[in-house]
Design goal:
Layout: E1 8-13, E2 23-24, E3 30-35, E4 38-43, E5 49-54, E6 60-66, E7 69-77, E8 81-86, E9 91-97, E10 104-106, E11 114-119, E12 127-133, E13 141-143, E14 147-154, E15 161-164, E16 169-174, E17 177-182, E18 187-192, E19 206-211, E20 218-222, E21 226-231, E22 240-245, E23 251-256, E24 262-267, E25 272-276, E26 283-286, E27 293-298, E28 304-309, E29 313-318, E30 323-328, E31 341-342, E32 349-352, E33 357-362, E34 367-373, E35 389-395, E36 401-409, E37 415-425, E38 430-438, E39 445-450, E40 460-465, E41 469-477, E42 486-495, E43 500-503, E44 510-514, E45 521-526, E46 534-539, E47 543-548, E48 553-559, E49 562-567, E50 574-580, E51 583-590, E52 593-604, E53 608-615, E54 633-639, E55 644-648, H1 658-667, H2 673-695, H3 707-714, H4 723-734, H5 752-779, H6 789-800
Parallel strand pairs: 9-13
Antiparallel strand pairs: 1-55, 2-3, 3-4, 4-5, 6-7, 7-8, 8-9, 10-11, 11-12, 12-14, 15-16, 16-17, 17-18, 19-20, 20-21, 21-22, 23-24, 24-25, 25-26, 27-28, 28-29, 29-30, 31-32, 32-33, 33-34, 35-36, 36-37, 37-38, 39-40, 40-41, 41-42, 43-44, 45-46, 46-47, 47-48, 49-50, 50-51, 51-52, 53-54, 54-55
InterPro entries: Beta-prop_WDR75_2nd, WD40/YVTN_repeat-like_dom_sf, WD40_repeat_dom_sf, WD40_rpt, WDR75
Subcellular location: Nucleus, Nucleolus
Protein name: WD repeat domain 75
């Protein structure tokens, strides 16, 4: 039962999909990416998440296919373990305990029983590349303590390490140094670029490295946008390199194609560049990818590429440089000014996304639905430029209206403030700009909200500002001779200071005032439903107060450092999250009584910044009093590192939709020659059967609707009645009904038109018979004489006689 399961904090989204390079499956059907302490498996065709591999206790830092079995996947983590997965079924096969904090993972086909990992032993910024031997054992957890040193003084990111020429050597870069280790010779060659501060050599820093899969060639990317191709590096004196230059900023990542004929590069220009035959003239571009390219991956089959972007997005690209799929995670903005909101129409989570955008994020599928461009200006990627920021947003009660506030301020006296009202358009299924207000207040807007009264005919918007005023905006008729339209105007202005004031929303009269000595008010919210007479406020000094609006008195107060306070719209419950040096704690209570209904200590080690209740489509059935507050709504909260968490009894793998798992099962079926022969034969049979059914007048009943078949298929065998009992029911269900006439009853001398007329007349007769039967039963009237078959036949012949000669008289 549900109440017996433990409610725990579950990571439900928001983790970085671009933290490490994505990895393709051998057949290019799936793509794997790290996501926090999970590994997610996506379909490259449908973009659906088909599996979530969970088992690591800390951040996953590397994933690689098993070179000896392409249906298995290795993963490493900060928890010091390497795990081997069967990604088709989502099953953990083995866990290898290394004991060190693992920062990157590499596999080579030649090293059958070993993998390569990056660790740090002595200093926190000095890393080593070591080989880990994976012993063979039947147990599921195995200790792997046998480490072999390979390279020292390397970078922790896997972009700075690459294996080349089928694993004959490994190249690593850091700062201005390139190190190449040869496994056969067991020697290391080191190369250094000039690090002088003049303009020519100021940005020679290495930023990434890639090795040719079949030749002795190393490609390195640099901070100045150049790409160097190194050859003859087995000799410290005869080595050479050539330069390719297109990027104006640093090269973020490099990758060779499977055959090695092309080199892919990407950077902050959001353009994927393909260098063919390593020539400056043979370049192909895929521009306007939306954000900085962080990583580039190539499928083992060579038919697909993928790019990971800074806006937490993965784009799957065909070999001809055409984007085929986009896997968009939760976009992490530098600051979440708008907080967490729920779109009343789509039930999507809404918050800051790309600069100047609102993102609509599906909590069920853990992917972005769409972006709404609020600022509607081209974003310029410049660190010194002060951008326009989207600071506030609010939805109307039914999702018909959206209010946003954007601002830009270079100096204290130069504030640019703009408020926009958006109306939902049913035709375009999106929000359209309705009203734009320049400088709605003289200072920063601190809050805005709609009047969510269900009986209110006209929507009302209230804005509050640091200028000591709040303004009321109402919807007015803005029609003219050209079109009918509505717009927003300011209706009322009131000034107040830091005390709590209560106003009538219809007459805007001051009703009462609460003076709070415990400090500045940080949060305010009204109670809901039966607790609507209460007002709650949290102060910066760590006091939670509850006022009774009917008696205008303080009902109760408590010592609690509240950082987040959110009411549940479907119940009287209110969630409050406090923060201390030990972590963040959750308290759920009703305003009518100060005793909490539920307390969850240490829901997060870091500070929780935002929270929101999301209504459930299907209510839960928690019977325990401590968990009943989760029946109607689910509580989500966002941490300082922008990890989206929730309280649930289900793991992320259990929350996957059945359609995704069915999709995985169907795609994993093998296509044998017998399957092609049988499938083609069945397809031809189905086409003939469909054509025959379309031409026939009589249609057989669907087998899904036959109760006998349903009972046979869905009832357990050990409780089924005897076969003799079901046989008569089964045979009778397959027989045609008496209302439909067979073709043998139709006389030969009647044409097709008469057949249609007879069917129509039969339906009318059947209908009149039913009506007459009911009339006779209810009213007791006489029965009308019914024609025999011979009389009907004579009547049809009589109808066939041509009477057109009468018109000539």
């Amino acid at each position: 039962m549900v109440e017996q399961e433990r409610v725990r904090v579950v990571r439900c989204g928001g983790s970085e999909l671009n933290f490490r390079r994505a990895v393709f499956s051998a057949d290019s059907k799936y793509i794997f990416c790290v996501s926090g302490d999970f590994v997610k498996v996506y379909s490259t065709a449908t973009e659906e998440c088909v599996h979530i591999l969970q088992g690591h206790r800390n951040l996953v830092t590397g994933i690689q296919l098993n070179p000896n079995n392409h249906l298995q996947l290795y993963s490493c983590s900060f928890d010091g373990t390497i795990k081997l997965w069967d990604y088709v079924d989502g099953i953990l096969i083995k866990t290898f305990i290394v004991g060190h904090k693992l920062h990157a993972l590499f596999t080579v086909a030649r090293a059958e029983d070993s993998v390569f990992v990056t660790i740090n032993k002595e200093k926190p910024d000095i890393f080593q590349l070591v080989s880990v031997k994976l012993p063979k054992s039947s147990s599921q957890e195995i200790e792997s303590k046998e480490l072999s040193f390979v390279l020292d003084y390397i970078n922790q990111s896997p972009k700075y390490i690459a294996f080349g020429n089928e694993g004959e050597y490994v190249a690593a870069v850091r700062d201005f140094y390139l190190s190449v280790y040869f496994f056969k010779k067991k020697t290391t060659s080191r190369f250094t670029l000039s690090s002088s501060r003049n303009k020519k050599h100021a940005k020679n820093n290495f930023t990434c490295v890639a090795c040719h899969p079949k030749e002795d060639c190393i490609a390195t990317g640099h901070k100045d946008g150049k790409i160097r191709l190194w050859r003859n590096f087995d000799d410290d004196k005869k080595y050479t390199y050539t330069c390719l230059h297109w990027h104006h900023d640093m090269v973020m990542d490099l990758a060779f194609s499977v055959t090695g004929t092309s080199l892919l590069s990407g950077g902050r220009e959001s353009v994927l560049v393909e260098w063919r035959d390593a020539a400056e003239k043979n370049k192909e571009f895929l521009p306007r990818l939306g954000a900085t390219i962080e990583h580039i991956s190539v499928s083992p089959a060579g038919d697909l590429f993928c790019t990971s972007h800074s806006d937490n997005k993965i784009i799957v690209i065909h070999r001809n440089l055409e984007a085929s799929a986009v896997i968009q995670g939760l976009v992490k903005d530098s600051n979440i000014f708008t907080g967490l909101m729920i779109d009343p129409r789509t039930k999507a989570l809404v918050l800051n996304g790309k600069p100047g955008h609102l993102q609509f994020y599906s909590l069920q599928s853990d992917k972005q639905l769409y972006n709404l461009d609020i600022v509607q200006q081209e974003y310029i990627n410049d660190y010194g430029l002060i951008q326009i920021e989207l600071t506030k947003a609010a939805f109307g009660c039914y999702g018909n209206w959206l209010a946003t506030v954007e601002q830009r301020q270079e100096k204290e006296t130069e504030l640019e403030l703009q408020m926009k009202l958006w109306m939902y358009n049913k035709k375009t299924q999106g929000f359209v700009l309705n009203t734009k207000v320049n400088m709605p207040h003289e200072d920063h807007i601190t809050a805005l909200c709609f009047c969510n009264a269900e009986k209110s005919e006209n929507p009302t918007l209230v804005t509050a500002s640091k200028d000591g005023h709040f303004k009321v905006w109402i919807l007015t008729d803005d029609s003219d001779i050209y079109k009918k339209a509505v717009g927003w105007t300011c209706d009322f202005v009131v000034s107040f200071e830091e005390i709590v004031t209560i106003w009538d929303s219809e007459t805007w009269e001051l009703k009462c005032t609460f003076c709070q000595r415990a400090g500045k008010i940080r949060h305010l919210c009204f109670g809901r439903l039966t607790c609507s007479k209460y007002l709650l406020g949290a102060t910066e000094n760590g006091i939670l107060c509850c006022w009774n609006l009917l008696s205008c008195a303080l009902e109760w107060s408590a010592k609690l450092n509240v950082r987040v306070m959110e009411p549940d719209l479907n119940s009287e419950n209110i969630a409050a999250i406090s923060h201390s040096s030990m972590g963040s704690d959750l308290f759920v209570f009703k305003p009518s009584e100060p005793r909490p209904l539920y307390i969850q200590k240490n829901i997060s080690r870091e500070e929780v910044q935002w929270g929101v209740f999301v209504p459930r489509d299907v209510p839960e059935s928690f019977t325990s009093e401590a968990y009943q507050w989760l029946n109607r709504s689910q509580f989500y909260f966002l941490t300082k590192s922008q990890s989206l968490l929730t309280l649930s009894t289900k793991s992320p793998e259990e929350k996957l939709t059945p359609t995704s798992k069915q999709l995985l099962a169907e795609e994993s079926l093998p296509t044998t020659p017998f399957y092609f022969i049988l499938g083609k034969h069945r397809q031809q049979q189905d086409e003939k059967l469909n054509a025959a059914l379309e031409n026939e007048l009589v249609q057989l009943p669907l087998t899904e609707n036959i109760p006998a078949i349903s009972e046979l298929l869905h009832t357990p065998a050990h409780v089924l009645p005897s076969a003799s009992f079901l046989c008569s029911m089964f045979v009778n269900s397959l027989l045609l009904s008496k209302e439909s006439k067979s073709a043998e009853e139709i006389p030969d001398d009647v044409d097709m038109e008469e057949e249609k007329e007879r069917d129509d007349s039969d339906e009318e007769n059947d209908f009149t018979e039913k009506v007459q039967d009911t009339d006779n039963t209810d009213l007791g009237e006489d029965i009308i004489h019914q024609l025999s078959k011979s009389e009907e036949k004579e009547l049809r012949k009589f109808r066939k006689v041509d009477y057109s000669w009468i018109t000539a008289l």
